[in-house]
Predict the 3D structure of the following.
Amino acid sequence: MMRRDRKAQGLVPVPEWVGDAWTIAAPLGLLYLVTAVASGVSSSARVDLGYMLVNLVIVVGLSIFVSNSGVLSFGHLAFVAIGAWTMSLLTIPVNMKDSIMPELLPVLRDASLPPLVAVLVAAVVGGVVALLAGAALMRLHGLEAGIATFALLMLVVQVLTYSTALGPRSGQSMVGIPQSLDLQSMLVIALLMVVVAWFYSRSRSARLLRASRDDITAAPASGIHVTKHRIIAFAISGAVAAVGGALWAQTNRVVQASQFNLDFTFTTIAMLVIGGMFSLWGAVVGVIVVSVLNHVLGLLESGLQLGGVIVSLPSGSRLIIVGLVLIVVLILRPGGLTGGREARWPLRPKLALGLSRNS
Amino acid sequence: MTSFLQALIDATSAGAVYALAALGIGLVFGVLRLANFAYGEIITASAYTLIIVWPINPVLAVLGAAVVGVAVALLMNYAVFSWLRSQSAATLLIASFGLSILLQRIYEGIFGANVLSASVASGLSTSVNLGGVRLNLLSVVTIVLAAVLLVGVQLFLTRTSIGLQVQAASADFRIARLLGVRSGLVIAVTFAISGFIAAAVAFVLTVQSGTVGPSFGVQPTLFGLIGAVIGGLRNLRGAVVGGFVVGVALSLLTSWLPPEINPFRTAFVYLLVIAVLVLRPNGLFSAGAGKVRT
């Protein structure tokens, strides 16, 4: 209807589908561009690039739930941990599992799958756990939802730390994960996850969920089953986060439950919030901005030569600066760098935009 | 029977610590809708003061810890949260989370990643034998300290003009402002009191452990915050009782769970938290019916 109005006014120089396609083309293009540039810079940039792609998948997973439901989750690392665990248990060679995890369940001990299949299994396991957890938790709102999802993370971390049937003894880590996916295939998976998030955000379920995000009183009154659509979003986002966990396991290659801690949670949430937590574009921009910042700060921490002067920052200043950026963004631009919007076709005339809003 | 009594006293004292943390968090939440995750870093600042100054002069250390706690809390208010007053509760929580991580790294930069140790008030770590019951002096002191602070805050809220203004602001911030409540002052006073309570928590915890590290305050804040939420953050008494329940549950699970599943005690507490939130989404002690908030 909107389209017809604007056409009648003769103000739209490009068809609507261009603007639509741009919302997916922009994040994919930017991600591809950054990867292409960064992989040519230096070997340390390539290492950080690997982690950036991992974080991108995790944050896109997080944003599938947060951006559409408007409910904050502090617990998505639970699914990341589950994904990392699944990947490790399925790809570490059997004899190695025997020596580091002698009390492992026989099923897990003998299981061994090719890496790409293991990533798929991780997605399924993460999705199923998220579906079950979501069924219990998705009636909660606001702060209670935040605390409940956080409790879920702590529960998963505690079980993975102490259960010798599922992993190594507490304090020990899983090693020997083969690095089987190169940057190229990680990029393909990351792009694929962005596409998944985009298609989901255009589904009926996601639109209804966003209606509930924008008005929690009116949406149920219009017959929207908010809890059901939240559970769907939670399950999909858990599956994508678990894919991120699987990629993380084979990038980091040492996996321990204690790694899924507050610092990691903070990093992912900071990326999402700095970019703008209500859009996919925001998630992608946030991950890229924070990752680039992290990389530069990392260079500074190890001492960088700038025109004859060695500039160096004390170690640990990365998180301080990311924390500062987060707080400044929240104060000056609470919607994040993208203002919570999807990517907009840059050649759109300002006039048409203003009028179409009024019509 | 006697071991039961001892476990009960230890549990009460553990509960008292988390009840205090929940009180400090709940007070600020009432006026500002801020669930202050960075509360732990106020505790940590006071704990560093205690550990560093105690060997020099115990009295100075206690006074210093209180002053530092209040000062850090006020600094947080003016440097960060006063800029975010109009934002949603979720935004405030994220900001405080960022502040918490940031301050932990700053402590690490100043004092190093390793723990500092000193025996603070070692006289309190002794036990007295009272009719067959071993009484840990610190447990008793903790319970008394918590009781005094709870009564103090209660008197302050009900008997002083500024306390009544705090209550009014908690009930309805906008209306309270219209009626002439000085919002800036009320918020500052609330932060100061929560900082003072954080110093008390730091005192108990440093006597217990004798060490402090950059993430010293995270654990008590986490459990205090969780307790406050399951008790019902919108109701200060509920929050305090919630914190108390979490502390008691943790302590009892530690002493009663059989050794083979004892490592999972924290997992049980988190499971309990999820169960309570699912069954009573507005908190255990909330009076109102399910009001939808996002």
In short: The radius of gyration of chain A is 22 Å. Confidence is low (pLDDT under 50) at residues 351-359 of chain A. Residues 43-69 of chain A form the longest helix (27 residues).
